[in-house]
Amino acid sequence: MKANKEYILEMLKASKRLDGRALDEMRPVKIEIGISENAEGSAKVTIGDTVVIAGVKMATAEPYPDSPDKGVMTTSAEFMPCASHKFEGGRPGEVEVELARVVDRGIRGSECLDFEKLCITPGEKVWLSFLDILVLDHDGNLIDAAGIAAAAAFLDAKFPALDSEGKVDRSIPLTDKKIPMSGIPLAITVRKVNGVLMLDTTEAEEESVDARITITTKDNGNITSIQMGGTGGFTDAEIIEAAKITEKTAKKLRNEAFKKAF
């Protein structure tokens, strides 16, 4: 691993990568929707050899006291031990929790998911959406894969039927009413390695990452959330460059991978 890391760093001096991609180029992205019969919406996203699944499950619940007319979303992430030698079974660790928070924040901040339309009876009953993220194979860039899968799962989701008592009835097919999504919020991550900005890093490349910045944008290019991580930092100029890279990448994903899937 040390030799591989040194080789990666040496190649970066000439702006080259192991797989021949440009520094701001993503691996092929494939989106498959409707992969789970038990979820209200689901998607499988493949980026290179990274594979992530997201599922949306709906239930009814009482609203929070401070938002009586808004629905609720809760997000969780789990890394399967078979996905990487780095992952172990058991309770979610800090990495899983952080990934779930970044994806959750990106969707909330975009306001693409209309929480007011998830209200059934103000002050009494609202829709509760569970977003579950499952990492099946890890070869880098898990945040982006999870964010893409989450957005696709919500776009695929439909409301379940309610019985005469207002409870979810899963014995009958889903309704034709889609979950209220007004756009495609996408979280794209740029990582910094020895002063070089890189998009869609592989697992091997991430061994050398000093810092990362995840920027979520809406369809119109507006930034809705920014999350930084790692031990290093970014200059103002690097943040501006990262914003340009993420906006361009998100636009391309919407025009290509999402259009193909939907």
Can you give a write-up of this model?
The chain is built from 5 helices and 12 strands. The protein is α+β, with helices and mostly antiparallel strands and about 260 residues long. It has one domain: Ribosomal Protein S5, domain 2 (2-Layer Sandwich), CATH 3.30.230.70. Strand 2 and strand 3 form a beta hairpin.
Q: How many DSSP helices?
A: 5
Within CATH, the superfamily carries the name GHMP Kinase, N-terminal domain
* Percent of sequence in beta strands: 25-35%
CATH hierarchy, class: Alpha Beta
Shape: elongated
Going by helix content, strand content and strand pairing, the class is alpha+beta
Instruction: Compute the number of structural domains.
Output: 1
Termini separation (Å)? 40 Å
The CATH architecture: 2-Layer Sandwich
The helix content, as a percent range, equals 25-40%
Radius of gyration: 19 Å
Largest sheet: 6 strands, mixed
Total beta strands: 12
CATH third-tier fold name? Ribosomal Protein S5, domain 2
Order of helix and strand elements from N to C terminus: HEEEEHEEHEEEEHEEH
Given as residue ranges, the uncertain stretches (5+ residues, pLDDT < 50) are none
Average pLDDT rating: 92
What attributes characterize this protein structure?
alpha+beta; six-stranded mixed sheet; 262 residues; 30% strand; four-stranded antiparallel sheet; Ribosomal Protein S5, domain 2
